[in-house]
Amino acid sequence: TPQFSGVFWDMQDAILEDVSRIEVLRGPGGTAWGANAFSGVINIVSKSARETQGLLLSGSLGSFDRGRATVRYGGKISEDTWYRVFTQASFYGETEKADGRGLSDQWNSYLGGFRIDSNRTASDSLALLGGISYAEPLQYSGGVPDRFPAVNGHLLGRWFHNFSATSKLETQLYYDGVRRDMVQNPVNTDTADIDVRHRVQLGNTHQVHWGANYRFIHSKTENTVQHIFDPREQNFQQGSIFAEDTLKLIPDTLSMTLGCKLEYYTLNSTWETLPNARVAWTPDPYHTLWASASRGVRTPSTTDMHLTINTPFFNEYPNPHPKNGEVWAYQAGYRGALANRFGYDLAGFYYDYSDLSTSELIGNTMPPTFVGANSLEGRSWGFEASLSWQALDWWRWKLNYTFLTMDLRTTPGSTDDSALLAEKRFPENQALLWWSFQPYRNMDVDAAVRYTDKIEGVKIPAYWGADLRIAYRPAKKLEVAVVGQNLFDPRHQEWSRSPGFPSASEIPRSVYAKLTVTF
User: Fold this and answer.
1) DSSP string covering 295-347, please?
2) Cβ–Cβ < 8 Å for 316, 359
3) Do strands 491-493 and 506-508 pair parallel, antiparallel, or not at all (unpaired)?
4) Is 185 helix (H, G, I), strand (E, B) or coil?
5) pLDDT, tens digit, 9 for 90 and up, residues 342-384
6) What mean pLDDT comes out for the span 172-187?
7) Distance between CA 68 and CA 15 in Å, rounded?
8) Torsions phi, psi of 489, nearest 5?
9) How far does the chain reach from its first CA to its final CA, in angstroms?
10) Cα separation of 451 and 429, whole Å?
11) Measured over all CA atoms, what is the biggest interatomic distance in the chain, rounded to whole angstroms?
12) Is a pLDDT exceeding 90 seen at residue 52?
């Protein structure tokens, strides 16, 4: 949403059985993904309709994830065209206070949609998908909990054309609409986007990927007495072109990728260059050394640029000269395997930030008056380590550890001391031990133990968590699973109190059972 350059996570839902894979990309992804792919990208790829034929029925009941019901059906329209339709209802329980009392923030969400995939010719394929989702998350108005509806609808079309075995074109067009009620500033947002990408192999050395994108956004917010957007309704656009070349300097051994996106954003009338460079050395199939450098930006939101807040306790005005927040990211790593049983991955990173958002005190007024600015800069660094071990054909272990530290500072003349707390709003250490095994051919057991360090800036203590899943398949197309989550403690805190909520919410220990049938 352009309202705060973030995501309404309560409006995101998916049918897990339809997920093909999840890609996690380290560092800024601006060359491929544009602005706001600031420090990483998580790309969720769904299965085609051809891969989801037949009927799937799934249902679960539990203590915190109180229930979920899923129905999906896939069929064929013709010999070269497949479809699926689906619906899902999810019911979530309430989080708890530190003393175990509920916060009455339970909520429900509903999802429905379709997908069609067609191989029209040997060179052309089409995909058309769409859906609608509805949720009623909790907000507090005057200390009283209330439900505020949020609805989203989208429609996406994609065309693939193969000019040859070495030249492929992809064109995508989509529309997305959000209607969301809230205590402060209900918002309607409509987005239309067209994206064209072309991949071509040039000889034995170059693989070129280039394209262009255009996005149109219409945003309308409703004003309240204390929160005023000016203007409250506006249109803005985003356009970009990019090119990326992967060079095989030494075939199957040494490669380099160079790319850059040029992007224009009309909301604050800025041009941005989003470059990246990567090199990888693979002396043999089991070892790879790599390094990268890239630049990312965060564009100002409509809140940064147009929101004025007037309360009896403080006044805040928008940034009169908004800048894009910037990061330069430098990374290097080594990954490898040993005897087809051990795998390891070590990656270090150093990020350099500038022009991050602050809120500056101006004058000596009562109530205090603040204005938005871009007076925060600094750096972060750390590393990630992963070790996997295939102990037996039916038994696998994985260990992950992440270390992160930040050093932020405000520029001379800044009055926003609270901005420095941002460096203490992340856990410094995180670890995960996961193992999966099959004691029998028709049974899976997955267990995970994880550690999250304390978050000093918002006074969240460190905690350990444990999850356990046992799945049994008494028949080929029937699975029964029991899942326990956060088993070590009755409850634990993961974030600070949200504005308007009476106290911080904590995640309780929970269990649920799930039944899945396919035909």
Assistant:
1) EEEEPPPHHHHHEEEE-SS-EEE--SS---EEEEEEEEEEEEEETTTEEEEEE
2) yes
3) antiparallel
4) coil
5) 999 999 999 999 999 999 999 888 899 999 999 999 999 999 9
6) 91
7) 10
8) -125, 150
9) 39
10) 8
11) 74
12) yes
